[in-house]
Specification:
heterodimer; A: 810 residues; alpha+beta; 24 helices; 38% helix; disordered N terminus; B: 145 residues; mainly beta; five-stranded mixed sheet
Amino acid sequence: MVQPQFLGRTGTAMDDLLNDFLAETAEILAEAGGAIVAWEADPADRAQLDAIFRLVHTIKGSSGFLALPRVTALSHAAEDALDQVRRGNRAANAALVTGVLGIVDRLNDLCAALGQDGAEPAGDDRDVIGALSGQGAAGDASFEAAGAPLRRDDDFGAEMQSWRSIRVPLPLLDSVMTGVTDIVLARNEFGRLLRESGADPSLVASFDRLSDSIAGMRQSVSQMRMQRIDKLFAPLPRIVRDLAHELGKKIAFQTSGGEVELDREMMENIRDPLIHIVRNAIDHGIEPLEDRVAAGKDITATISVSARQSGNQIEIAIRDDGRGLSPDALVAKAIASRIMSAAEARALGSREKLDLIFRPGFSTAAKITAISGRGVGMDIVKANVEKIGGVVELRNDEGRGLTILLRVPMTLTIISGLMVRAAGQYFAIPRGAVREILLEGGDTVRIDRVGGGELATVRGEQYPLLRLETMLGRGRHHGDDVDDRALVIVRPGQGQSYALSVAAIHDHEELVIKPAAPMIMATGLYAGTTLPDNGRPVLLLDVQGLLAAAAIDANEAGRSHDRSMEAETEAAAARNAAQLLLFRDLNARVRGVRLSVIERVEEVPASALFESAGRVQARIGDDIFPVHAATLPEGEGTLKLLRLYDGRAVLCYPIAEVIDIVRLPDAVQPSVEPGLIAGVTLVGGEPVELIDPFWLMEQYAGEAPAPVLRQPLCRLAEDHDGWGDNFLAPILRGAGYRVISGKAMSDEVPDVLLCIAGEGDACAHDEGDVPVIRLRASVAAAGPGDETVYRYDRQALLEAMRRSLGGTVG
Amino acid sequence: MMEKLYLVARIADTRVALRSRAINSVVTVGTPVEVPAAPPHVAGLFALRSRVFTLIDPHVVIGLPAVAVAPGQRVIVVEVAEHGYALLADEIEDVCFIDAPETRIAGKLLPGWARVADAMIEHDGASLLVVDPSNFITLPALKAA
């Protein structure tokens, strides 16, 4: 009889057992770490405690069978301590949890050694076991390699669960996958032959049934490679707990969407980026306690990791409620670490400033810390995610937190590809990198040759243009129709884009991607090969590699058009923001009103205001408007009136002067009761009362139907050099007149005639009753009897107009 | 006794004995898919049982001009470093058990052959070059080419 431990190293059956044990234990330990942290947060959670107990118990059982005394002793100690808690003999406290976690760590180390050497290394575990028993290292640790443990009733539940799934080696899965792909290819060929042979419909129908079940099987096989993203999240609670303890921060950690499934190979690829981002959030994102208090935040910070599926992409969001990123601090840091010059930094947009964290050699922490300052920066995270066809996005809310989004395809091996043709053969482009497809001859596309290179302009945006044939060193295929040529706008990474010109677009397909032979990958132009359903291999283009091969700068930043458009959108946004007209009212109080409700500011002589039926009214032109005033203003001279217009009626609001136009502040303290003042806000630190135009209009609505706004018609005569049209007409229109020039024919009799070249001569236009105002070009009047008005005396001119109109209407 | 088993074939206008250990199978191919911008000895890609294989033209490896792939041409499928390749063969003769020992190469070979040939072997009254198929794929010669 051979000793079991000897068997463990040589016998193949035992090797398999050991491998199974290691795989299972690694999973259990990851799961246990998370469960223990959750239990620590809520020691009363009996279900959690039972779960942990079962996990530890399973390890103990398996290790006893494989004769791994250290593993058995460790798991026994943990099991024992947990059992004491279960029986109520011991309280769950931080020391106990730390002790159990210490055992978990030691078990992890042992398993790593086992995987490498196939044997348990010699060593002493009394330190961790002692720490758990609370008696220090000197404590009793005489747990000998235990025999087969006694089963407790509640252990069977866990065993039952593990029977519902089986372990399958990955190569076996791959071979099943290959087999199914073969079947699919054979099916396609068979189907083609069947159609060509004009087979019996019943034969075709039965083939279609076969075909459907093959499609279903293919689906199931791809699902076999999928794993719940839970596995990826499992180690995170532990990492958060340990790091938070170390840094003296309080953090509540949550995960959601653990049921989302992901290809297990994909999972391997995002494990490190995910852990790095979470560590970053704890170390840099979450403020120290006192800062959180100062910022009025909850002392306990929240970090959440959530996953969700959208299409065949998985979106993982890592959100924290820390300080977020400060674009200005990032810029200062970039300049300090000589990543860029101050001049370059000034040219950056706000988005680009945030993207600085992805620059190699950039670390946001003021000092390198032991936690995340380990030379693995966000640049590595980004590179790793992009390598698997994913993207990293930032959603920053400065002062309130940062969300980092990882968007990755569901599987590495199956991607959605766009099939294009060039040089007489097909190529695939990863669909995720394609932003837009346009016909090269389309109206929206303009192609310019610039110094030997080509540039495509699509709706005002410029892209460097690459022709796929040229990139591949081939000529155009004789069979290609020039009308089919298309531009694929490719975005290989964030902030980069170019236009790829191809002979034709074929279609979209779900593609199984395999790496190509090394000498083909070495060209840098291809990312792999794929086998579409027609059975002819197709090369997958490396969209980033093409860029490198072309040696062009595809950076979107600094493309002149881009920037001017950005500035334009910003300006448009500023225009759209509500604006506030600040004025001083007759009692010298500063008040404000939304600019959009003001039709214009009118300046009228005090005499234009009159009292009628207890109301103050204003006569402006030939219209009469209500004025918001209790009494007639005293004094002579002129008066400024804000004309509020609600689309139907006009109300005048007398003011002393207009002060400024500012952006309407977000924070307004509303009044308790509705009234003239809607609320108070701060402008430049000074309180400003906001007029409520709604309330104001309401007061005057309904009484006296609003006078019909008939704008008086003004005809310009003798306007030989166009001065009237160019200089005068806009002012008149602004003052509320309709203007027609001398040549325009109109049936309507004008209310006033402006004779522009009225110098001395009698104006030829003498149209009976229509009042005539003559303008002169010289400043000085010809004599005391001169009725003409100097043409640049706006005030006098408008006054004369008003007078003459008053005469006719009056 | 796999070590004594050789595939005798005419490759790049020369009769050779290929060590059979690395050889998967001998199949016929249709028109391969070209790989633009690839090294000149890559004659294209073709699919076999849902795997994509890279077709290698030994003529180019030896330093001769490339030959066109004729539909139905036989190729020798080999596996090197987990990638599948196929060598274009002018003619496949036989798989035979050669008992004679491999001997040191006597005489001067063309530089191309000198790079890929490992030894010589006596078979049916003729001297054959013994070649490991993988020598056609990993090529120091190509850097010079």
